[in-house]
Amino acid sequence: MTTTYSPGVQHLAQQIGLDPEHVVHALRFASRTFARVQVTTGMTVDQFRRLFAQDRHSIVIVANLAMRHAGRRDDAQLLMDIYKAAVGRLPYERPIHTGVGTLPECHGHPHVRDAVRILTAAGLPPIHTDGIHELRPGFQVLPDDTGDLPGWVFITPDPGAKGRTGFAGGDLGYLAVMRWAGWGVIPERLPGGLYAACHPDHRDDPFPTVPTS
Hints:
By secondary structure, the chain is α+β, with helices and mostly antiparallel strands. Helices cover 39% and strands 9% of the residues. It has 7 helices and 6 strands; from the N terminus they run H-H-H-H-H-H-E-E-E-E-H-E-E. Strands 3-4-6-5 form a 4-stranded antiparallel beta sheet, with helices on one face. The radius of gyration is 18 Å and the shape is elongated. 38% of the residues are buried.
């Protein structure tokens, strides 16, 4: 017998890379346990998106429970760490030093700093550079240097990305992390192997063919 899942359940399952049954289990458990979690197994995609925007903490609780139900405790914690980094709730955050995750001249760009903080919280290794030499390999985040795309950053993945597994692993791990942090993303690499992500404050700004969820 084939189980039919609501669009909202399928959407959340797709976002975190799980079978929908794990999400259904988490929704039922969360609804019984946490009074603030006002989500149901019959939610639509629109309901999911509204909840994600208005009470994202509830969605994070459900996703964490779903990951744990799937036996992926490390990824469950990773979802929480990404969320906390995105909303500024990390209990302790090391300062981002100049040349870590981006070029020294881009260090002060607020959206670049946000992206570096989120990706680092996800356990992805940042580049260390003096602006000329690569002192340690890793991902690199750059802003749009044309001024035409405010809010957008461009990410060069670290060399070991393909060899990793889990939520933040593989070719699309960077996109999964930024999407979970609430940023808009382009679902494939741009020319030059870059990923593009848009800060939540600019998700309504125009850019060709950008799915934002």
